[in-house]
Amino acid sequence: MQSQPEHDPAGDGGDRGDGERDPQFATTLARGLEILRCFTPDDVLLGNNQLAARTRLSRPTVSRFTYTLTQLGYLRTDADSGKYALGPAVLSLGYPMLASIALRQMARPGMAELAAHVRGAVSMGVRDRLNVVYVETSRSRNVLSRQFSDIGMTHPMIASAMGHAYIASCTPAVRNGLLNTIRVTMPREWERHGPALAENIERYQQDGFCSSHGEFLPGFFSVGVPMHIAALRETYMFNCVLPSTSAPTGRLESDVGPRLVALVRSLQVA
If one looks up domain 16-92 in CATH, what number appears? Predict the structure, then answer.
């Protein structure tokens, strides 16, 4: 079993209110960044009214932020609707972060091999507050949908096998703090996925991985394994997703899970 992370490298879950009580916290900067976080693959175009509703900021304040972000290239204006979309400057911010993760290059061959074996997808992620964001992914030739296995995609930790693996690998003190934050800030998700998380915490202690039999994405099974690198004070997460039709009863536990654990351990040794 891997050593458990003794720290919470991404904070307590991103409670913006706590940050605003910190005298070192730049509230204006935080609010501008929150506007950028409003955009999702399902909401690529948003107007000032929609952004004001999502950030709970006044419309004049949002208008100033969107104007500034547009001038800087982080937003662009859609010619047809007049709404805003993310601009190329956002992408240029992300690349240096991805390029700095040497583990991505090391993991690619093993991830591709496992993806081909299970006829699914293998992804690597990092924590972003209460979410998991993909930083690398490999898909088998039958190509699973990019909707849930592409670089930059995010999923709530409470609703992903790799997120469960991260939570399960934490020390009890860190885990309890994280669970309390999820319970308070994401009550619907907690009610829906909390029982499965409790089961996965027990499963991780025994088997070294967490699993999902379609609870997160109907028709797809998944397993998740954490990888803690003490020298970097960072925990990476790996998952393996495959169609339920390719996972007969017991395959996750007898084949897919142990293979993902073996991949992560080999990377940790390397």
Answer: 1.10.10.10
